[in-house]
Amino acid sequence: MSAHRIRKPREIIDRKAVTGRLEDLASAVGDNRDRRTKLLPLFKDALGEGRAEIRRRFLEEKGSGAAAFAEYSYLMDQIIRLLFDFTTSHVYPRANRTRGEQMSVLAVGGYGRGEMSPHSDIDLLFLLPYKATPLHEQVVEYMLYVLWDLGLKVGHATRSVDECLRQAKGDITIRTAMLEARYLWGDRTLFGQLKKKYWTGVVNGTGPDFVETKLGERDQRHLRMGDSRYVLEPNIKDGKGGLRDLHTLFWIARYIYGVSEMRELVQLGVLTPDAASKFNRARNFLWSVRCHLHYLTNRPEERLTFDVQPTIAERMGYTDRKSGRGVERFMKHYFLMAKTVGDLTRIFCAVLEEQQKRRPILSRAAMFLGKKQLGDFVLDGGRLAVKEPDDLEKQPILIMRLFKVGQDQGLDIHPDTLRLVTENLPRVTVLRDDPDANALFMEILCSPKDPEVTLRHLSESGVFARFIPDFGRVTAQMQFDMYHVYTTDEHTIRAIGLLHKLEKGESKELMPTAAMAVSKIQSRRALYLAVLLHDIAKGRGGDHSVLGADVALKLGPRLGMTPEETETVAWLVRHHLDMSRTAFKLDVDDLKTILDFTDLVQSMERLRLLLVLTTVDILAVGPNVWNNWKASLLRELFNRAQDVLTGGFQAEARDKRVAARRAALVAALEDWPEAEREGYADLHYPAYWLTFDSDTHESHARMIRRARVKGEAVAVEVVSDQARAVSEVLILTEDHPGLFSKIAGAMSLSGVNILDAKITTMVDGMALDVFTVQTMEGHLVEGEDRITRLRKTVHDVLIGFISLDKALREQVPRLPERARAITVPPRVIIDNVASKTHTVIEINGRDRPGFLYAVTTALTEVALQISSARVSTYGERVVDVFYVKDVFGMKVVHKGKLGQIRTTLEEAIAEKPKGKGKTAAGKLAAE
User: Fold this and answer.
1) What is the DSSP letter of 412?
2) What is the DSSP string of 304-326?
């Protein structure tokens, strides 16, 4: 139990005063049922007043989590003791209890440790000498009903001493609970018997098994929680680096050494004072966070979600600074504490293994392997270790060599040696100017033996941050959004691992174009270093791509890169977002888009490098971020740029290309009468022939013919594209202002995402619109029922059967409520340079039902024609890009008109539109 001293305990609960009121109650009321009725308000008052005082101390006096945990345990101890005394003295009194009727009440679990947060459960063990008697059952039942009536969550067991021992031997969970059992009240002799027999009959001789089991449980729990301490909405109890990991260390320490507090291990020579201090700091920090989380959510919440992070950060004193937002500074501190927990686990297991001298805690088989020489190191139990404890101090270069040999030989590093690495971290500083150390680092980074594992070991040991201080600046750094799943350092190391897999051909099916490109790359070292450095300057208050390029220019020569390699790395870092921006936002059917991109890239080598970097960067963001649609967009941009760079692109006259496409369609429609073929081809303007390929032209023609034969005023067809994992919704209807916005609203009602849209108007006034869509989960639309519903919804909206405004207002938001804590500044960018024929408008805002409908309605209100659109979603943020023209079919250049467009769009995307005269789009956004 925490030995935290309770300050002014009577202000929490005055036990003497409550006892007096209980005695008065017992004297005044003779009937037990009546007593219980009047007992509850008395206990509720005592419990409520105590909780209020603890909350006041914690929130108003800025108390610590350690104090609050101890105070809650103290409050609950007094309540249970008072209840036990009242029950045994007044409800079920017995003048002379037999030995078999004795009992004691023990606290177990977190309550036994004295770790009670505002909404913790109470775990009780009613301990009996033998089998339960009727008196025992009455006392236990009465106490439990009162505790439940008080609104407490109580876990309980009623067992004899022998039952406890028998079950502890057979069940590791019960054995662990017994390990932290704490006497509360009743017969203390019983507790003494249990304690003595537990340690001699259960614990004695089972230490290694217990430790191995507990570490195995920890590993399985980590796998369930994602096996990373760097997820951005961490579980502070069960997540990697959370409280449960500290509990595991405490259980092991108590089981092996019989200690009640980790600081006792210092006296036993197991932990250094520094390590014990780190344990307490990490535990107290996590306790404080957990208290804030429980108070804020008013429930036993353990997940540090986005909506609570800013408030907890503010309450704990993390303010916004130039270096970053307060919430990001708070979360960085959290992740550093989680890393500390991992360091402590490694250090403790190393010392434990060394002192036990029985068998290695972390590997059963290792005990059969003796020490063998391996260059500067030895194999100790099958793991790499230094020969002498002072080797790293005398030769700091051995620190880097240790990780390199471990990588080459596929060996784990002995935990005791890792502890020595931690102790010698200050000596890593001298390695920065050591050419041999820098060469070793580059060999590790570019090794054919999975660099991800070794880089993670370098990071977790603290060597990485010391060796490359710029990496230290992004260690444990988070971005406060729902798109990035990991901290910057974790994202970077995962990206390196993905690059390694790509080279080995393990991800060929997932990213075939990048797999092809990586096999032809000549600047391999530059690519690996660029992936390592692409986000190195995040959180510095400027464009991290530009600032990161500066870091690359300085770091490249130090790491032994040639001037050419350094320049390549800097260029890749500077432009690592440009390929995805071009592919996902701009229209690659627009020739200027391709020419602008190739002017930037200039060579096939850089095009390949940029494709590979872009691909692994996106994949490393998190699960479900990469999909076939994004792969197809990057592939299309890569292939078109390759055509230009290799001379395969023929800048054939536009008229000739249009004529060739038209002739190809007429030839493909050989089953149509010639007059019908020519008449159909005459329906399309020149732009149509260059927007789609010949196969698509034919499918459009046959779809339009089917609609005309059926006499459909509105025709909707859905075609699935398995290769790109998207569905195309083809819509034929009479063209009119606001058509795009109606379709966008219909898609939202259908539960699909619009990714891309091509808007074509025909000579006869009909519109042929092609929308590329996916389900909300990122898949193509499949199943006859779902496709039918999609077609019907679009059809019914366009003919007026469905009121869009009302239906969209009733739509359930797809983002969780906690996402509202994340600020997404609305932004409108109008670009008249990106295209020769269109004005390009980019709109950023928070995702919500009807967002695209509100935006396109606003575009209609300012009399703009939408020719094409690209829609991307990054967590809670939407980025919509539209290619538009004015009513005369021209780019928008008048300053007044541009200002009107900007104002209207900003109002439409604002979450709380200003002014009384809101546009229709603005009203929908407000609602």
Assistant:
1) P
2) --TTTHHHHHHHTT---BTTB-H
CB neighbour burial string for 269-308, b if at least 16 within 10 angstroms, e if fewer: ebbeeebbebbeebbbbbbbbbbbbbbebeeebbbbbbbb
Cβ atoms within 10 Å of 114's Cβ, excluding its own: 21
In a shared domain, residues 668 and 604 = no
Global confidence as pTM: 0.80
pLDDT in tens, 456-501: 999 988 999 999 999 999 888 877 655 567 889 989 999 999 999 9
Q: Could you tell me if residue 456 is inside a domain?
A: no
Q: 98 and 198 share a domain?
A: yes
How many structural domains are present in the chain?
Answer: 4
CATH number, residue 530: 1.10.3210
Q: Mark whether 247 and 309 lie in a shared domain.
A: yes
Sequence-distant (≥ 6) Cβ neighbours of residue 162 within 8 angstroms: none
Q: Are 377 and 348 in contact (CB under 8 A)?
A: no
Domain containing 602 equals: 468-646
For the sheet with 839-846, list strands across it: 715-721, 726-734, 766-775, 752-761, 865-874, 877-885, 839-846, 827-831
On the question of pLDDT at 306 being above 70, the answer is yes
CATH number at residue 353: 1.20.120.330
**C-alpha dist (Å) from residue 30 to 27, 38, 41, 44, 802:** 7, 12, 17, 21, 70
In this structure, are 235 and 196 located in the same domain? no
Distance of alpha carbon 313 from alpha carbon 291, whole angstroms: 13
Q: Are 757 and 771 in contact (CB under 8 A)?
A: yes
Q: How far is CA 131 from the centre of its chain?
A: 50
As a whole number of angstroms, the distance between CA 695 and CA 719 comes to 13
Work out the widest C-alpha separation in the chain, in whole angstroms: 113
Tokens standing for 774? 């996916």
Does some domain include residue 106? yes
Query: Is residue 395 domain-resident?
Result: no
Q: Are residues 514 and 638 in the same domain?
A: yes
CATH number at residue 125: 3.30.460.10
Q: How many residues does the chain have?
A: 927
Q: How far is Cα 534 from Cα 499, in angstroms, rounded to an integer?
A: 13
57 plus 167 within the same structural domain: yes
Instruction: Say whether both 199 and 210 belong to one domain.
Output: no
In this structure, the answer to whether residues 224 and 98 fall within a common structural domain is no
> Closest by alpha carbon to 521, among 502, 534, 495?
502
Please give the structure tokens belonging to residue 808. 């969209």
Does residue 130 lie within any of the structural domains? yes
Residue 682: DSSP 8-state? T
pLDDT at 210 over 50: yes
**CB–CB of 840/881 below 8 Å?**
yes
Higher pLDDT, 12 or 625: 12
Q: Which of 342, 368, 394 represents a domain boundary (last residue)?
A: 368
How many whole angstroms separate alpha carbon 546 and alpha carbon 567? 13
Other beta carbons less than 10 A from residue 135's beta carbon: 16
Q: Are 405 and 375 in contact (CB under 8 A)?
A: yes
Q: Out of 177, 203, 229, pick the residue that ends a domain.
A: 203
